[in-house]
Amino acid sequence: MALQSTSSRSRLIVPALAPVYTSAHEIVETILRIAAGVLLVTHGFGKIINPFGTVGMVESLGFYPGVFWSPLLAITEFFGGILITIGLFTRPASFAAMIVLLVTVYFHGIVQDQGLAGAEKSILWAAIFLFFAFRGGNSHSVDARLGRTF
C-alpha cells in the first residue's frame, strides 16, 4: 500500500524523498510497535514478579477488589507487551494497554495532582497504543503470518 498518492507526492518539498517514505513507512511502524511492546514488558516485569504488589494503588483509584485488578494490571502490561512486540492479537492487546495508560493519565494528572507534567508520558503512550489498536500489527507481525487479524 503506497503511503502517498501521486497527487500528494507532488506536494512534497523534496519530491525525491517519496520513494523513501513509501518504502520505509511499514518498517518504521514495526519499529515503533516493537519498541512500545518491549517497553511495556519492561514496565510490567516488576508487576508480574509480584502481581499483588499494586493492590493498594489500584484500590486507591477505586478498582475493587485490588486482588483482582492488581494481577490483571500485571498481566496486561507484561503479557500484553509481549503480544504487541511480536504482533499477535495486536489490536486487543494494544486496546488493553491503552486503557491501562488512560488510567495512569488519571492517576498522575488528577489523583496525584501532577497535571499535564505528570500525565504527558502516559498520554503519549496511550496515543501510541490507540494507533496500534486501530492499525493492527502490519505485515511484520505474527498476525500477518497467520493470515488472521483481530
Automatic annotation (TrEMBL):
One GO cellular component term: plasma membrane
Domain of life: Bacteria
InterPro entries recorded: DoxX, DoxX-like_oxidoreductase
A Pfam family assignment: DoxX
Keyword DNA-binding assigned: no
Membrane topology reported for the UniProt record: Multi-pass membrane protein
Keywords, in A-Z order: Cell membrane, Membrane, Transmembrane, Transmembrane helix
Major localisation: membrane
Keyword Transmembrane helix: yes
UniProt subcellular location: Cell membrane
Residue ranges of the TM segments: 67-86, 93-110, 122-138
UniProt family annotation: Belongs to the DoxX family.
Protein name as it appears in the record: Putative oxidoreductase
Source organism per UniProt: Xaviernesmea oryzae
Lineage: Bacteria, Pseudomonadati, Pseudomonadota, Alphaproteobacteria, Hyphomicrobiales
